[in-house]
Amino acid sequence: MKRLTCPYFLPCCAIVLLVLSKLTLAQYEHLGYPPGYGDQEQEQYTAPQLTPDTPRIQLRLAGDKRKHNEGRVEVFYNGEWGTVCDDDFTIHAAQVVCRELGYLEAVSWSPSSKYGKGEGPIWFDNLHCTGKEKTLSLCPSNGIGVSDCKHSEDVGVVCSDKRIPGFKFVNTLPNHVENLDIQVEDARIRPILSSYRKRIPVTEGYVEVKDGGKWKQICNTEWTQFNSRVICGMFGFPGERKYNARVYKMFARRRKPTYWDFAVNCTGNEAHLSNCKLGRAAELKTNGTCAEGLPVVVSCVPGRAFAPASMTGFRKAFKQEQPLVRLRGGAIVGEGRVEVLKNGEWGTICDDNWNLLSATVVCRELGFGTAKEALSGGRLGQGMGPVHMNEVECSGFEKSVTECFFNKESVGCSHEEDAAVRCNIPAMGFQERLRLSGGHNPYEGRVEVMVERNGSLVWGTVCSEGWGTMEAMVVCRQLGLGFASNAFQETWYWPGAVSADPVAMSGVRCSGTEMSLSQCLHHGAHLSCAKGGGRNAAGVSSAPDLVLNPQVVEQTTYMEDRPMFMLQCAYEENCLSSTSGQVPANSYRRLLRFSSQIHNNGQSDFRPKASRNSWVWHDCHRHYHSMEVFTLYDLFTLNGTKVAEGHKASFCLEDSECDEGIEKRYECANFGEQGITVGCWDTYRHDIDCQWIDITELKPGDYIFQVTSPPCVLRPRSRKTHWKSRSYTTQRQLVD
């Protein structure tokens, strides 16, 4: 924890932040870019050529996973699954594991059985990989099966979402195929019938896997409803249904399919195809056709919010009616903190034992597909009210998470452990019909939409008349950029394509819940925009998603009486009430002190707007201030009258701590770069200057504590605090 500068964040009744920062493109390179933004060609996969004496192994990721592409590293050798010890394991070894499984690269690795203890032999210990090996068995080690480790030392890895282009599964253990997980480059539902080709989203068609760079169908002789359930789920659909098989038989006779070599064996509760087992080798005839079968077809049932519908005319976003479960705090559709209704009061779920199975039940219940990720640790914001469920255990087939087994005692659980989900949602094509143009980075720019004009699809701008935060929020949601930080009514500094200057959409009015800009009210084909497009077109910028940890505030708040002669630095920075300048130096000020902890859960680093050469050195506190005002602290009476205030005049931003696998990038010492990295947090202790509100003139009573901060929009919360002499109690309030 840092003891360096003035404070900066707090609990809240309303927290309002707007990011005004313009970041250079280089600052975003380590984050990756939105889909389609400057994609670079990836190296093509080359199947490893192994010498005859190379031990043949197969790998899988197992255990208590919260994403399909992470887990305990398990090795199949000599007819038995075993694990890998974490001794001497490095990111280079993780790279070999992920590449062998068909992922582009390793993101991180975890020691000490993070994903649970495995079973069987520990096949590898003291691995020394360079990262270039074609298989884990080629890395120097103690020898296969030679280990002094226990399963409490089982290692786990997190692989990237991206697969290696052209990846082809090579089964080196043909006699043990039923023990292996499915490894393919990609999968899709390809619409076959003309009526389904025109629908968005695609709900019915052939199931195809990409193997060796080629799309192939799957023979349906061993296909089950459980397999269909998994496929539909990973593409964002909560369920599956029957289809007209006769039509597809006719189509298969006319066009010869290309079949994959294996069958698929899912239990139905998997979140992703890669978690299913490989089925037996497909029985193909000499002409390549499927023996006594046809290509697999699935027909999926979309959630009501994604049901195919006409895009013409005015259309409002569907508001789901779920009486028992809801998601809150997510920046995009299908993600958020899980909240359940019990005895008329909304509360949260503790993240103990929270996994993909339970998260998938939540996602399907809300009309989405399977869970993409089960999040823990209040990653999508901390809720208010009670913690209703703890140690949730689902089979994956429940209709509601409230039907799952759980521990009714939530002793020890706080909102720091609130569970959240990211769900798979259908591909609606929203991102293909809207873009940001001319910005300095992928997260800002002039808003341009694709519309049909005279039979052709053309890009155009959006009229900025009445353009505001609600509209900007919908744009950022549609593009998957998180929360909006600013809505701009002039964009002359973001020159887009000249051909896209004409206005293509006007009169846009959004409620803020829509999934795309086209779902907002607008003028349709009859445009009206006095300002015109071009330099006066609408624009947006997205912001880091900064989340306050209210428990830290609640646990550290106290009052202190401090003499004026010890508050000279704070007085110079206006951190005391206006009456402090009229009192003698030997008088005391009563301060409400607290710590604050700000997490960056967004998609971009938070950086000061000012460049380093404009930072101001403050001799009193002996550090550079990168911003003049960041946070305002206010106390109101219950009728809304402001009675006390404080502020964070300026401060130093740095990464105090980071989530596992993320490296710190910002440090204030020695005139270092300032900011908060994605996945890290900045902590300001209660005992540093200005981390307070001056309440010297305040009478004991109930007050509303409000924090307003300019950099970006945070979720509103409130605190009602009651003081008697030096003691206080806090009572939480629910504020949506």
Percent of sequence in beta strands: 25-35%
DSSP strand count = 40
Uncertain regions spanning at least 5 consecutive residues: 1-42, 310-320, 709-736
Please, how many helices?
8
Computed structural class: mainly beta
Cofactor: Cu cation
Catalytic activity: L-lysyl-[protein] + O2 + H2O = (S)-2-amino-6-oxohexanoyl-[protein] + H2O2 + NH4(+)
Pfam family, one: SRCR
Function: Mediates the post-translational oxidative deamination of lysine residues on target proteins leading to the formation of deaminated lysine (allysine).
Structure description:
By secondary structure, this protein is mostly beta strands. The model is unreliable at 1-42, 310-320 and 709-736 (pLDDT under 50). Strands 14, 15, 16, 17, 18, 19 and 20 form a 7-stranded mixed β-sheet that branches. Strands 1, 2, 3, 4, 5 and 6 form a 6-stranded mixed β-sheet that branches. Helices cover 9% and strands 28% of the residues. Its main location: nucleus. InterPro entries: LOX-like_protein, Lysyl_oxidase, Lysyl_oxidase_CS, SRCR, SRCR-like_dom_sf. Its EC number is 1.4.3.13.
Tag the structure with descriptive keywords.
single chain, 736 residues, mainly beta, 7-stranded mixed β-sheet, 6-stranded mixed β-sheet, 28% strand, disordered N terminus, disordered C terminus, signal, repeat, copper, repressor, LTQ
Describe what is shown at a glance:
With 736 residues, the protein is mainly beta. Helices cover 9% and strands 28% of the residues.
